[in-house]
Write a structure and sequence with these properties.
The chain is mainly β. The protein is 0% helix and 55% strand.
Length: 119
């Protein structure tokens, strides 16, 4: 199992930046994938960015060129650097760990952190 704690959310003006952190309760170096997801009111949760065990990354088209996902294995932490924020980026952001288990893949979620982009 792994517990995840997100931080770094807040209120920011359009065009501003935020960095989200996701701290894990155990080593993340062997976790298959770590991802950031978001959910806006009335909408389904969607993938924002994911970083795989080999450090390959994937991004939603809506955030490409603006967001960067990274990991610090020494700190057991995954980051999401968000630049050029837009009002449509407003959502609760969740961290997820995909861990390979005996019976298949297990997903673990954090509690989320709110990001509000508004003037």
């Amino acid at each position: 199992q792994v517990q995840l704690v997100e931080s770094g959310g807040g209120l920011v003006q359009p065009g501003g930046s935020l960095r989200l952190s996701c701290a894990a309760s155990r080593s993340i170096s062997s976790i298959y994938a770590m991802g950031w997801y978001r959910q806006a009111p009335g909408k389904q949760r969607e993938l924002v960015a994911v970083i795989m065990i080999g450090d390959s990354t994937n991004y939603a088209d809506s955030v490409k060129g603006r967001f960067t996902i990274s990991r610090d294995n020494a700190k057991n932490t995954v980051y999401l650097q968000m630049n050029s924020l837009k009002p449509e980026d407003t959502a609760a952001y969740y961290c997820r760990a995909d861990v390979v288990g005996v019976r298949g893949m297990n997903n673990y979620w954090g509690q989320g952190t709110q990001v509000t982009v508004s003037s």
